[in-house]
Design a protein that fits this description.
alpha/beta; 5-stranded parallel β-sheet; 252 residues; 11 strands; 40% helix; homooctamer
């Protein structure tokens, strides 16, 4: 926002001083900082505007499209770039335009880490089961790229509630807790009733039958009687990682 | 079943001895033990067949219809009769034909307690919140009419998990545990992970929005990773009470 | 947590010193700080444990039950108490046991404000339409009871997007933004793309037909391409207010 | 309609003049202008009746069936023919019977352009993301075959709302605007609040989890508070292109 | 749009000429033409921007709120104002601030007709049954306030398809056809296969059971094989009337 | 159909003989036999066309509208007229225009019986519970008005399967069996596996929770492994009665 | 039924005459005529009981299981056997045990035609589109195996309603009409409003997006205002063929 | 529970005696008996706590992860271990770490049978069709590993109800009956009305169209009017086997 506001102020100053004609100002107001690839408009400005480097959802795009978008970010001087839901072909295409990219096959992420801010805040990620692993990793990668520390406790199921005990000391000192759980999503209610910090629930599509692809866990988290809990979309590790880092870093 | 089998055996004996003609036997096979009220066929035989006294769902019936059904059971010599979802008008109509009936306004139950078998087995009913009260009572009344002891722990929400601790000693000695919970239904998962006895979950329609009238709690219980848990329909205290008593009493 | 851990530590010290026998310790471990009203177990400890005063959902409880729960909190020395979804009868019953209670008819809230911490952090609440008013108020009351400043901008619909402009300066300086919107929920996506602070979306049941009682707004917020957005349940102003204050106040 | 009415009038004239016997007239009334292929009745008359050349949905048909239907249209003297959802095999089969066909692999369209009317009206197609590309193309091809000019702006997401600015001049001069968007479908609400021309929304199945295969975008568009917006089915570029061209060309 | 663009241009001219200081320009850019009532921001500019007078959805607002919004529009010099879903109390409150308002009890509409443009274009509204009447009227009132002629054919059900015949001459000469239908919504498919003009379907909540409150009609219309058909939300006569008038009046 | 065809033939003969001018014939083709009441087009021809007297769904119509429609049928010389879902006000309004009407409060039906054909065929209606009574009656009234004999067996629940035995002799001699059942709809599967005659299932909205307003019974009937079973809409006694009578009467 | 009743009568006669001891009779009552394959109980008696030869759903069974079931029917002297949803492997396995089997790849049916009764009654099958072909064929095969004549009209879409005209003469003379339609299912409403004979609707899973896999067509048919229409499950050609033949053959 | 309580008692004794320092006790309270594999926390204590050996859901885990979890159980001295939803690769990986494992390809189970308690109680499993076989086997394996006898009756469909007769003697003597059924799930209602023992229903995903992947069977079972019936999740043979064995073995 600040950026937009400052741009506008500068433009108005130029108009006043006669450096810029009103017609040209009008033109420049439309020429906002994105880069048009024809099939995509790469928003080079978001990082300044929101403090979050760009993320690209690979699903529904061809490997070539993803690679060209990544290339535009890299050339545009953006900070970190994270590509999610990237299958092998996409990752190969990205590596060609950005050989320095790191990747993780389990969570299908590939990313270029650049200009990560100094670490600030602690995010604790707790998951209900081993199968939630890919979502845990997506959240972790995103949070770390945004500059917060991450501690992970996996497979802390409600059915064996004593396993939660080992995670409690970390939960107590967290600035934000992310709970990743499929099936009944009950872990989020439980942690939501114990933690002082804000809790972000991530329902996962783990489970069959009445799990309804994550909808049951989602609804359970939303209707949980534990206050202090908010939820992102099913399997949305990226979204969880983003808001968790923003919460953990606090006002900047 | 035993009853039917025995009836059939007796009939066949009569046919053999010539006491009964085949035509008449054929007729009697159709004349099974129910009482036809025109709009309802009162099944006087279920108690013998299944060991469970009759329950009448008042919803969708006029007060007069309910009263006449109750009357038929009482006259037919049935054991206990329990009417559920009975509003004031229905309860008044029942009291006229059965002045000895007991009732509970909160759970909208009215019942005639007769021939309750000697108490056997312990059912522990645990509920997540105060609003689950009516379902808890319906389950309790049914279980006690069927001859099991009931201990109730209400308002044991997951958000304040330490409140469950006080209920644990009873849960440990139960023959069957009934968990009544709306919203996210997480209490069932939690108890299901702790109890040795079979656990029956009753999702309730408590909660708004994403609770979806009990569907979220239902699905959460069904997809729970806690084995040893089975579920009855939303708000179905009657069903829970029935199976809980059968489990608790064991083979008779 | 800290409370529980400290209690446990103290207890163990007592056991060691012989002040407390193991049997008694075992007993005391079960005697956790709640108050049993029979139909409700009032959790007097949550405020210490989680820093959030208690909230009571009146829906599904009788006015008497609500009043007795409030009374228990007040007598138990709890901080603020907030009753939501409280119709006229409930509010009257609460006023009898707590004459100092404040109330708001539009949002059906009644509350006793006690020991509110020093104000810290700014929460900006933005709503899409006039009909979202009750949810806005519930969120505002909760946040203020938890000790954060609240600024509200109502009726900032997407269909007239220029109306959002006036809210932008406040959005820029917020520690947390709450977006309350029914129908298509598009305002949350829009604000989510503009704000630097964490954004909490509250879908409302405003709208008819394809609004599906808030489910459309909920799903739209969850699937929004705007990162940095998390969501609470439909019409859940209480939940939004809780997490927003926790985020805005930061680590305490 | 006009065609049917005129045919009927001519037939009645023939009956009156005795050229046609009533029996024969009755027969001819049933012999309406379609061509029976056994498994399909090709409607050669629709173009005259409705001014829209035929479109064939390939899904659920064998390549041979599609090819024979196309052949019947071509031989029957129809205008343009557009086959949608045509995979490689279908397109190959069509090319054999119509070597002059043009095709587009991304949107799986293949078409024979014939007798396109003089261009009239401007349709502006705006899409939310790169992944909406196939639907954008299907709409564009259909609109152009129907004789309207098309201008496309892709990847104009709500999360970076300033990207919409560059599209505004075209939106202002459009006779009809088509908005193609998946996930939360918020772009349609936004454009619907800005455009003077009728807006046709096309929800797409882009997005995962709470996108529910396009249902969320669909519902969001339907419940949008922006008046002047109507919607076609999920991913239905064909339907959008058809009504957009009809609107843009106006009364003919 | 034009309005906003012109305002901006004028402002920039003022800045250049020194009439307006940059700081003041910045301020005025935020002071866009709405009127803040606290609970509502009345958008006085939409009429200029989109050519559609304002509509107010009364549902979810108190009668007083509606009356004050209407008052603001009337005082702000807006054109026509239409209040929909207005029950008796709302209509009484509106009549007090605008005694000249006309109203229709069946469709629960109340409106102040002012500055209606010269009639242009013909909209034909066809409905499936008598029960669709309220939606038909809402659409008709809206279209007429926007300056198009309306002809209505009610109760043209598919089950007696010959009843459609009498409506055909009007359908043939329409600039836009609106089809209002509940239950199976089949009338929209049928008309969509006959009309040359764009067809706007309005599913209604008429019907019980499998009609699912209008969802069946909605889905049927969306999946209809009739091209040239787009759909508005369930019971949304207002939306249908708006887009129909825009289509019928054409580019202005 | 026959009627339409014959009309057309007669018209063509008139045209040929010169008795009717083509222009007039065209006009008369549009003037099909319905009566336009403004808000309703009464189809006086359906009885001839389909052999079924008219049925009027009162829901969503004002008592006056229903009365005027009934009046039109009566004056138009139609056969029987049946009004369904008619509350007290509607029935009173109908009695004023048709004092000879018979009515049934439980099923909310009111009807004028005229020209019922000679009885032919036997329809056996079997219901699962007392609460299904209103639907049973609606089906029975409709079937009898259409000229078939009806035998009813109520409250033949699956849970007490021996109660079905008494109904079997009638089921064996039926020309069509109608099974009315809510909740799990299992009775339809059971009868469908026993009957030789075609079986029509009517799911009812009886039951709460997982009955989902009749959807569960509907789906259960549709997915039943019993062949020879088809289904009408939830609570649609009218539809069931209509097709049952057509089946039972056979080709006429 | 008749069979069961007769068996029972014979058994009772034997008991009376002393030919059979009661114990043995009891035993024989359990030994009903099915053949136990371990994983399947082949019901050799259904043909006698219901007049319908057996149908085997191959889905979810291994080819070997299907082959052994078919073998059991063939050896058991059953009449025709029809296997549906049989992929290539299943059909190959069936051909090995029944080389005389006929098959149809499009509808994935394979069948052994034996003892088909003399043809009686006419079933007219009308479909909306070419893609409905497999369901049309399944219905046709089943009906013909049950001994009714079948006439098929394919691709009679509502969007080109005049194509229905050619089918009308056959529809008029049918004993039962089967309408097969996906998408909006509107053809069933239309035919239901024209035919005198009972109409059986078969919704198909043809269509994408809002077709919801056939659910939209299903609901549209169920809520159709056309009386005289009943519906079978989605894509259930078998069920439609069964009831259609029973209706067409009439009482036997 | 007993285990936990005993551990705690022992710990407290140690603290009292000075053997253990409070700090160490605190530490040990967190060090509960699970084994941390990084991606999984193996709960070695559940068998003692709940009397049920561990089950591992292979779905969503890599073969290596499953193998390492199994290995940990085996090395940790657990009793039986059962892996469900294990495809060929998983089973191969498990066999490498546990060559003694038994497996069943149809139900995709692999298990190591160790320390099975003396057989107690009889569970009768009844299934509706051959396709329910895999779920039947999963339930059987689980129940037998838990130490109850299992008798299976497969393919006892409601459409041929006499096939149930042969299963009745076993049902009568069962301690718990498990009913496995897809499609309409009617078998559960039927058995629920006949059995004296508790009945556990397992809805299966068998069936297409309106079976909705098992949801119809699930809802039908939940809403069944047969009391004494509780339900586990769709296809959840494991859950059914667990609770059935607990019920059948009774209090231990």
């Amino acid at each position: 926002m600040a950026g937009l506001r400052d741009d506008l102020r500068a433009l108005l100053d130029d108009v006043r001083s006669g450096t810029t004609a009103p017609e040209e100002a009008l033109e420049r107001l439309s020429a906002l900082p994105f880069r048009d690839l024809g099939f995509a408009r790469v928003d080079l400005h978001r990082e300044l505007r929101q403090g979050a480097p760009e993320a690209v959802l690979a699903e529904g795009k061809t490997p070539e499209q993803v690679a060209r978008i990544v290339e535009a970010f890299v050339e545009g001087g953006a900070g970190s770039v994270l590509v999610t839901r990237a299958d092998q072909d996409v990752r190969a295409a990205v590596r060609e335009v950005a050989p320095e990219a790191e990747e993780d096959a389990l969570s299908r992420c590939i990313w270029i880490a650049r200009g990560i801010p100094e670490t600030r805040g602690l995010v604790v990620v707790v998951s209900a089961g081993t199968s939630d692993g890919p979502v845990v990793r997506e959240a972790r990668i995103r949070t770390e790229l945004l500059g917060s520390e991450v501690v992970v406790h996996e497979d802390v199921g409600v059915a064996g509630i004593h396993r939660l005990a080992a995670a409690l000391p970390d939960i107590e000192r967290a600035d934000c807790v992310v709970v990743v759980a499929g099936m009944d999503g009950a872990l989020a209610s439980l942690v939501g009733g114990l933690a002082r910090a804000p809790v972000i629930g991530v329902p996962t599509s783990v489970g069959y039958g009445s799990a309804h692809g994550g909808t049951t866990a989602l609804n359970a988290m939303l209707t949980s009687c534990a206050a202090g809990l908010a939820v992102v979309g099913i399997d949305d590790g990226l979204g969880a990682g983003t808001i968790a880092a923003r919460i953990a870093r606090g006002r900047e």
